[in-house]
Amino acid sequence: MSYTSAHAQTNEGEAKTTSQSSTTIGGYGEISYIEPEGSTPGVFDLPRFVIFLSHQFNDKWSLKSETEIEHVRVEGGVGEIALEQAFLDYHASNAIGWRVGLMLIPVGIINLTHEPNTYYSVQRPFFDNDVIPTTWREMGTGIYGDITEGLKYQFYLSEGLRGEGFGFDEGIREGRQEGTSSNPIHPAVSGRLEYLPIAGLRIGGSFYYQAVTSPVASFDAPLSLFSLDARYEISGLKLRGEFASLSVKDAAKLTALPRQTEEGETTLEPVLSKATGGYLEAGYDIMSAINSNNDEQLIPFVRYETYKMETETANSGLTKNYITAGVAFKPLDNLILKVDWTSPSFKQDGTTEDETSEHNGIFAIGAGYSF
Amino acid sequence: MRRVFGEQSALTTVQVPIDSLATAEVNAKTGQTVRGRVSIRQARNAKNEIIGYGIIDDVRGKEQPITYITMIKPDGSIAEVEVLVYRESYGGEVQYESFRKQFRGKRADAQLRVGKDIQNIAGATISSKAITAGAKKLVTLFAALRREQRI
Known about the structure:
heterodimer; B: alpha+beta; 28% helix; 28% strand; globular
């Protein structure tokens, strides 16, 4: 990040507490090569290129925005250019601030913090695609701040998910409106508390609740999601975990709604009624054990994910397990190189064998940056 | 500063030019640049003895400058680091005492490496590093000017 204040590298000794405005440009991006079947030729891609533009009007008012280009360019139904965030903040005090605009639903770790140098795998956790529909953002407004030192809150009212977009494989993901002329007829409330008892530990708990998911339905279909997460870092050890439980009531009735896929085809895909699970990840910075003075980090890591997705039909449950192991190298704080291998195993309820025969594992190499 | 050095202490400010020797020493030890002059606040007790110093500065957070003060005891060790103005929506946890207390007692010769000597705040690494680099810069500058008997 660069900012227009002239005091960046000088030490003139006087507080710059005056209300000066400044504009900041930054960004993040990812480059990846992924072999989804392990041995076959894979996909070389630049999945995300994001530009931050933010402006501090004074010490209270600020604008933050992120514009994202997905998969390099938009052509033939591939790629996307979208605002990922664009909101105004009024930071009244540390105790309370007000926010309005296109903002992140405050659930979990990755949805709120997804610069590629903040996690070690090439791809985001699968859990953060299937259960928490990362990057989950909607138009909304709400408040945030510190209740007391070490206890933070966010509480928002936002537009909700469209039940017509729900399915099974992608869960509630395609229900996101993402702020495009979105229909606020089924609003949602969401909130998050974070507790930081010591410097290296951050524990978070979030909820999301939406009473109605479809205007055409003559029934209530409440959707609720609860999540817990924690990050703990101490002398080179880096632990994190996320857990969530999603419930879509009346999923069977949503299944019966006339629904269309993104390509405009009518779908009969059953709608997910429950998704529960999470992951645990451990990494260790080998460089921390070496008495070096620079910022380099070399972090072998392993992550175990397990979650179950099911519909209201008996024996519909599909349990997905992923073990991901790899190494991340950070030559600088804002740069990361990654390589990892993921072994998936799926189990359908009512069957005895793993449906893993077609999966040889996922091999991935990537690079990422943020500034 | 009175909260740290005593409510009765008298505060004065002196302007100290930063000479090339101090600039070179800070640059060599911290990789950071200081130049111009520095305003050093001095806290004095009833006997008019200096019992503490304070230097206010900006460091760059993720997007916006963070204004902070590093308070230093006459023996050159850090008495306290405090954030005076934090302007961003995220990373404001560097204002928490659980983070700031790690600097107390550190001298210019102490290593201040984030993740090693100073535990960063989980999920707020950038601002943790910014404040740590700033405190290291100021305590090193203070020691350099002290050695030159400019303070």
